[in-house]
Amino acid sequence: GFWFANLTSLIVEMDLQDALRRRRTMKEIAKMKNHIIVCGAGRTGRQVAEELETMTDQYVVIERDPKQIEELREFLPDAHVLEGDATHDSVLFEAGLLEAEGLIACLSSDTDNLFVCLSARDQKSDLEIVARAYEEETVPKLYRAGANHVVSPNASGAIRMASYMLRPVVVSFLDVATRSPDLTLRMEQEAVSASSPLVGKTLVDIKLPQYTGLIVIGIRKKNPPDAEEEFTYVFNPQADTQVDPGDIMIVLGKPDQIDKLRKFVNP
Fold it and tell me: Which whole-number Å values give the CA distances from 225 to 184, 219, 222, in the listed order?
């Protein structure tokens, strides 16, 4: 009777801890706005979560496998993890889909990722969706299902392998610049609003490198409605390049410099 009582107490305590943890997680998720939902905590999902962790804590990971959840918490103990099936609309709503800014579908099968894209796009039309495709023939289907961007590991891996052979120094430099813990450089983007004080000025007038220390790599400009392409990318913009409303500046620098840019562009 003594051992049975202890065993029962242990089971009840573990269930209570799980219930309290889930309740705390749900309260934190309910407060989130413009966050990112990651569907899947497998190998790709963990890497995505680790990358997000370096920039923000406003993200939620959905995973139905308890073992995968425990492995994720070993790497990221403070991650907001929701146990459930991401292919169910109710779970997406629990993750704050209607308040989310983006969704990353990296489940273990293309069918599940396709279903998530369909459900998420149907519930929120302006959601930014990035999906993973294991099979090449799935890529166009994911775009039709509502994904804004589709990543194929086979294609991207092949390009990277060829790049290592053809331009190894360039690839190594990008790895060091974006992943080294010593340099902590980031390639980041910042949109220019219509009320920004930078609108109508040229880069030489703004003096962005002198003020923030950032390197301006490029600017994405929106084309007129009658143009064939929606956007134009200006690489290595010259000093006389004018900044217009809706432009997105692509810069390279440290996190504190990027924070300074955001305050400078949209105070």
Answer: 39, 19, 9
d(C-alpha 100, C-alpha 132), whole Å: 19
Q: Is 114 exposed, middle or buried (0-12, 13-18, 19+ CB in 10 A)?
A: buried
pLDDT tens string 113-157: 999 999 999 999 999 999 999 888 899 999 999 999 999 887 778
What length does the chain have?
A: 267
pTM: 0.75
Question: Are the beta carbons of 236 and 218 closer than 8 angstroms?
Answer: yes
Q: How far apart are CA 100 and CA 33, in angstroms?
A: 6
Measured between alpha carbons, how far is residue 202 from residues 199, 212, 258 in Å? Answer: 9, 16, 19
- Give the pair of three-digit tokens for residue 231: 């956007």
- The one-letter amino acid code at 101 reads E
Distance CA 200, CA 142 (A): 39
